[in-house]
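Re: weekly structure request thread

Next one in the queue (241 aa):
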Amino acid sequence: MKNEKRLSSLELRFVGRAEDDFNKVLKKHMELHEGVGLFDLLKFLYQSSLGSFHLLEMMDETEMLNWIRKNLENTRPSDGSLTEELYGKKWVRLNFGPYKMKYGNDYQKIYRAFAKAKKMKRGQPAEFEKLLERLIDAFRKRRIQSIADEPRALSIVLDFLKEYEEKDYPPVHHSKSYMLKNSSDYLVIPRSSLGEITRANQIENESVASHDLARDDIMKRAVEFHGHARASHWIYLLFAC
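Done, posted below.
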């Protein structure tokens, strides 16, 4: 698409005070990540409204399981937040680095959480279009500006978005500037499915705790038993002499 290459290296910033929830979420996202460009904002809003249904169309269960497994294996464990909120609270990004730090390479647990999307009502392009209108409004009001003060940034963005609409809003990749400064190792999953991950871990922890308690109880009883046995031995020796 026109100016795609140029836009991929055009870094943006949020200027001024965010006056509503939409702009607050955009501002937070742009402050959380360095090198955010137009494509990254489009991806953020696309995922917020349409989630990851396109992946369900692109891959069957086996392919999706392999995709998650390979990406998780290639991700380095890292500190940080397990998830990142998207706008609207229907979807979240599950970050593979922090996930791997906590749960290792358990890719099946991620798939189970992701697969919950099959039961969700699919988002409509109209929802995404409304978010794009609000994004354009933020550009027009100069809430979002180019870091390099590119004088033609607004016209370049608007021209691209017009063509993007004509092509029926295809999914986009992260910008080059974003990829250089951030990890893109994540998967968008239904927010309601986070319990698949945290609940499973809670059960594991409770099982370990229960095992530890049982082991401690056995050791305590063993000590008490040996203590009584030793006392009985000395009593026997005392009366036998």
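Residues 194-241 form one domain. DSSP finds eleven helices and five strands in the chain.
Next request, please.
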